[in-house]
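As a warm-up, study this chain.
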Amino acid sequence: MVNLLVNYSALLTEKLKHATWYQKRHSNRVLLSREVIPLAIPILIENLCVLLMGVLSTFLVSWLGKESVAAVGMADSFNMVILSFFAAVDLGTTVVVAFNLGKRNRKQARTAARQSITLLTLVSVAIALLIEFTGPWIIDLIANQADPMVKTLALSYLRVTVWSYPAAAIALIGCGALRGAGNTKLPMVINIGMNIINIVISSVLIYGSFSWHGLGFVGAGLGLTISRYIGAAMVLMVLRSELNHALRLPLKSYFTTLNPAVLLDVLSIGLPASIESVLFNGGKLITQCFVAGMGTAVIAGNFIAFSIVSLINLPGNALGSTSTIIVGTRLGKGQIFQSVRQLKFIFGLSNVGVCLLGLLSIPLAGLLAAFYTNDPEVIRVVKHLVWLNALFIPFWSASWVLPAGLKGARDARYTMYVSMLGMWGCRIVAGYTLGVILGWGVNGVWMGMFLDWIVRAAFFYRRMESGRWLWRYTQPKIAK
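Now compare it with the structure written out below.
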């Protein structure tokens, strides 16, 4: 009798385990088909379009010579520092909009979106004016020992593209608000349109048409700037249209007094994230200075390799943005367990995806490099860096996708501290030591970046497993 009960208990336990496994598998399949894919695919296409804005500018000038490629890389490395600040406030807007719509508070969500766009537009104009007067000093600082021709071209490109900042701010914040509302298709369509416009306008401005010879190198920056303003106009039109019912914002609503309480809610996430992004991209700018003295071919190869690696990481970045939206929405609804489970699922999915793409990039490295340039020395640099990236890519998702999900839970300060440690404690120190002092060149600078990934991955994975990132939502509420 005892044996019969033991056997029955073991059989029941086994059935329960099987049922739990089947239920979890079914739940993951539903999550993937109903939430992750509908959000991630449009974000992936949108991010691809945003990245292609810079990639296409590089490609369009690549046939003007490696000096032009190096110049665009130098100027864009600085532009990314500024745009990363806008993107961080965009993240804060996305989280606040998703959280408030999860609580069915549309008024607060609309106010947050409107106030963020107004504030960032004013800030971007001020930054553009400041850079206009300090451009030569900035290029001297970041170009360091680069060829004088590269520095001259970089300055001309920077002075044109700096006036695209207000348009970029409007487009980023507006698209972030739409994503927070769960509308990822409209930002995707807008960014596709911006890229088509950029290709057409930049091609004509660089190389001319019919009997007109074009503007040459300056045409790339001018085409990018014009296309961003057209994109910003498209975003504002969408925000005021019936297509965007949850966040409908008439144009006149932007000309209202700024609300400190609402902005504080956005900046409580956006400010730590912007400090993190600016310091992080500022650190990347310093590593560019390490490379600047290694020759024009290395500068161009380094920039092209970063462009290729960014394309490889796009699916992971899309899943990171998806995790921010899903975690923020779930926590807005009070669904704490669901937010944890879904973050872990998205992290695992991202890790598999980027590792497969990294593996695929090994045999295709030379072909991808040849898309940008026909210079054999530049292609050799690109191939070595892409191969190194494939070796260390298993650490990428934990260092980038996990913090995106943590920010959805407003755990932005922790991610800021870890990112600062990884950048300034590993990427800069190790990159300078290996690349400059020990003479490993650009490969050593990239090894510093991979050490940064490893440190970030360890801290963020431990944070996710500990559950401390949910402290705001698990503490008992004190009755007033």
